[in-house]
Amino acid sequence: MSAPAKSRERGAERSSHGEPAIRVESLTKLYRRMAPGDRFRTLKSALLDGSLTSGLSQDKAITALRDVSFTVGRGEAFGVIGGNGSGKSTLLKIVAGILRPTSGETVADGRVAALIELGAGFHPEISGRENVYFNGSILGLGRREIDQRFDDIVAFSGLEDFIDEPVKNYSSGMYVRLGFAVAIHTDPDVLLVDEVLAVGDEAFAHRCIHRIEEFLASGRTLLFVSHGLDLVEALCDRVMWLDRGVGKLVGEPRRVVDAYRQAVAEEESRGHREEQERRLETRARDSNGTGETERWGSREAEIVAVRLIDAEGHETHLLESGRDAAVEIDVRAPAPLEDFVFGVAVNTPRGIEVWGTNTHLEGFAPRRLDGAATVRVRCPALRLAAGEYTLDVAVHAEDGAPYDYHRRALTFTVTARVRSVGLYNPEHRWEHDGGVEWKEGD
């Protein structure tokens, strides 16, 4: 889904509003933890021991949200980001009044419409037509109001040919179409939208975003949850990052999104290191004949360690496209060698060769390798496209006889601020002459 250009005028207008449209104070939500062997309890048994009304202790509860506070101004688009299980959907359900908080307070001023869960507010056995009236009444419309808006709702959803079919026969995308069409046509003061927009097709998603922009331009309020960080950054005036139920950071979209991306990158880097350790353990088992090895050779020269180095000189498993990077290979030769070649190769996880080179191809004539040494190949601007990659390293004789060959010696991730397709992200710029105009992105 392509991201819209955010209205700077709307962001400036938002700051002038006084009373907030949404206020969340010290919000906490706990869920009872079901221990092994627990059974569903009757209402009578729960009342007898007081567990229905007594507070949950931390050791008997799962914390979905912990002491979360924020306000959303009228006319503001407020985004919420975070990993799975961070409490985003729970937060929206509490603001919508679907769930009750364990402690704290939420206030939403005006009519609230929520598009939170696929199929929420719909009865599967009745038709789309009947569900429009059913769902509209839940959102606070009278029958006459729904009558007046019915044709617009159906036209926006694009479900004219299916409106009299039971919604149990609808696809997930059709559910979203009808749900969003009803929600946006109830003229809410506050619109709550969860990740469900990602279920719709591209054309309908664009139509939804356009309608949300019109909704915001009219001075109404959006609370928006999504994993689509580019869309959140483009659409929202402010963003909150939820991390395991805690409000980690609230602020300007680019700042919060970048902080979240950095945290995700660090987590991925830890995952790469753990995977690398598992690979080393696997290779140790394979060398004892327990499986197919990813390392072979005579060991006349032995690769002791392989490191990926970032622009700051730190070992890493995460690189930004276009930045300086280097591969370091620690090698040890038990006896002096006068015939040796060092090589590296970058591949995709599916084995597509992206780039490779060795010292022989680049004209380095070997003279002597003896004892411990470190060989380094540096790329002043490694312009790989965003994605996952693996690295092969080797030391071998000039005729190709391997001394030590490491396939998939390490894995790493490349990120890129500019989106592209393919495997290579060259430095480039767009130019134009004549009757063409466009507005460049931020």
Tally the helices: what do you get? 9
Taking Cα atoms only, what radius of gyration do you get, to the nearest Å?
A: 29 Å
Strand order of the largest sheet: 5-6-7-3-8-9
Tell me the name of the CATH class of the largest domain.
Answer: Alpha Beta
Strand count, sense and barrel status of the largest sheet are: 6 strands, mixed
Helix content: 25-40%
Question: How would you describe what is shown here?
Answer:
With 442 residues, the chain is of the alpha/beta class. The protein has two domains: 8-22 and 72-262, P-loop containing nucleotide triphosphate hydrolases (Rossmann fold), CATH 3.40.50; 293-415, Distorted Sandwich (Coagulation Factor XIII, Chain A, domain 1). It has helices at residues 8-14, 43-49, 88-96, 128-138, 143-157, 172-184, 202-217, 229-235, 253-286, and strands at 20-32, 61-73, 77-81, 103-108, 112-115, 190-193, 221-225, 238-243, 246-251, 295-296, 302-309, 318-320, 325-337, 341-347, 353-358, 369-379, 387-396, 402-415. The protein is elongated.
Helix and strand topology:
Elements: H1 8-14, E1 20-32, H2 43-49, E2 61-73, E3 77-81, H3 88-96, E4 103-108, E5 112-115, H4 128-138, H5 143-157, H6 172-184, E6 190-193, H7 202-217, E7 221-225, H8 229-235, E8 238-243, E9 246-251, H9 253-286, E10 295-296, E11 302-309, E12 318-320, E13 325-337, E14 341-347, E15 353-358, E16 369-379, E17 387-396, E18 402-415
Parallel strand pairs: 3-7, 3-8, 5-6, 6-7, 12-18
Antiparallel strand pairs: 1-2, 1-4, 8-9, 10-18, 11-13, 13-16, 14-15, 14-17, 17-18
Helix pairs in contact: 4-5, 4-6, 5-6
